[in-house]
Amino acid sequence: MALSAMDVYLHLLVEKATEASDYIKSVEYSFNSYFALRGFQPHQIFLSTIAFTLFVVWLYRFFFMHELSLWERFKLVSFRTIRRLPYVGPQIQREVDKALEKMAGSLFKLPPGMKYVNGLPQSGMSEDQVMRAIKGYHQLGHVDWKKGNVSGTVYSGQPELTQLCTKVYGEFAWSNPLHPDVFPGVRKMEAEVVAMTLKMFNGGPNACGTMTSGGTESILMACLAYRNMAKERGVTLPEIVAPFSVHAAFDKAAHYFGMRIIHVRMDPKTWKVNVKAMRRSITSSTCMLVGSAPQFPHGIIDPIADIAELGKRYGIPVHVDSCLGGFLLPFMKKAGFDLAPYDFSLDGVTSISCDTHKYGFAPKGSSVILYSDKKYRHSQYFVQPNWPGGVYATSTMAGSRAGAIVAACWATMMNIGEDGYVESTRKIVKAARYIAKELRKIDGIFVFGDPEVSVVAFGSEVFDVYRVSNALTARGWNLNSLQFPSSIHLCCTLCHTMPGVTDRFLNDVKNAVADALANPMAKATGQGAIYGMAQSVPDRKIIADIAWGYLDCVFDTKRGDQDGPVNGMHH
Ligand SMILES: *Cc1c(COP(=O)(O)O)cnc(C)c1O
Ligand SMILES: *[C@@H]1O[C@H](CO)[C@@H](O)[C@H](O)[C@H]1NC(C)=O
């Protein structure tokens, strides 16, 4: 019985195969006769085949080989078309111009009597004159970060450290790491900063790294290295697969280096990246996976071990962005806090970015990029062997660099030492956890996920949280506004560990929330309204245009020296 069923099946199969081959033959025949009948010459067929192939390649590249997805490009073109329409277009432009004008008028106003310098003074100023002028510039700032009123921004600010760095800067003011033969001391210090940081992150015997000018450059370098490696194995458009919450420096890297970035969605409860979704985003073009330890917006640590495992399984490099937490996480265990592994002790982790100029307390302008193996570092190097100026070789973006910044960073790390960092970590993490715990007790707001380190973000499902942000600004606080979804965060630094600061903050939040709850449907005004509105504009190019206007204002020396109050904008 079974045998005969098999027979029937086989018979059917042969029949279908014959039919199919007959069909192919008939198509072949009509194809050939079509070209033969119309008298096509073989060279015509040959050339049109090439033309057709090129067209298909073009189509393929158009659809799939662009840094922006088809949908993103479609939106761009649609909105661009709308802005070119008669009547509608000029009206939108007028609104944008009005917003720009309003912003330009309110930003960076100078106090009465102060003018911009728009050319060199004919004869140089004396030291006294310069110092007097400098005092005036210093007094333009009215935000008191020393009292802990500002989120992040200044991580230490201890006067003794300022003095030490200033002295060390003086010693190395003219040095340039581009010339290690002239400044061997700077070379030694730079190598030692990298070595000390590697030790903090459990780098193996082949681990290595370089110093950079900041977190963004560290991230750019890792992305460049992985892009170059992917290109070498034939990938046309390398893809970065990163959490939605990842730092914008990765988007910048994609933009600068001709890569595509895939943002992976977050778990809506924990605000950690969804690793399953990350696995599904992997393609043959993926050149790196990213996890943050922790991410900037909500201070949450991604599941680094799972991402590392994924990278190992698919043979893809894994970058851990520890720019923010780089000088907290390595000391958390010693400071008495539990922590899942996040560094080179995990097999799949191939690079880590770590900012010495955040919780390392070094002056701005220094960071470290670390690799588990020298082959990755080689891919970030640039060498031009044929330059008439000599064989030109640099490890990072810059050519000449400030050796004094390297020296100040080295001095800071040596001055604080492991015990010092354990102590600052203990104080900062304690302050942040206290704030998170107390914020959770306030009705009407919620804390994002379980912030383990130094940043605490909160939002509201009851009222517009930017109203609380406005109220806190009015009370002298300078916090970070976040979007998608609307929220605000406080990034705790040493400034927030001074007695009374956390309670002063919590008290002000409590009062602001109570005011907001009294009238939950009210809309935010002013700065808060701008953030709320900016999220709801579907044409993101409009927001980009306004941001361009903001950047233009930063370099403006033509307007704003009319009389009026100083009104700076701080981030
Ligand atoms: C600050 C930060 C960066 C970038 O650092 P910069 O020094 O501002 O260039 C990158 N990632 C995270 C998580 C950060 O907090
Ligand atoms: C800092 O914040 C407090 C409110 O907690 C406020 O009273 C004080 O004026 C603020 N300082 C400055 C310089 O804005």
UniProtKB/TrEMBL annotation:
A Gene Ontology term for the protein's cellular component: endoplasmic reticulum membrane
InterPro entries with a match to the protein in the record: GrpII_AminoAcid_Decarb, PyrdxlP-dep_de-COase, PyrdxlP-dep_Trfase, PyrdxlP-dep_Trfase_major, PyrdxlP-dep_Trfase_small
EC category name: lyase
GO MF term set: pyridoxal phosphate binding; sphinganine-1-phosphate aldolase activity
Any Pfam family matching the protein: Pyridoxal_deC
Topology relative to the membrane: Single-pass membrane protein
Enzyme Commission (EC) number: 4.1.2.27
Protein name as annotated: sphinganine-1-phosphate aldolase
Gene name tied to this protein: SGPL1
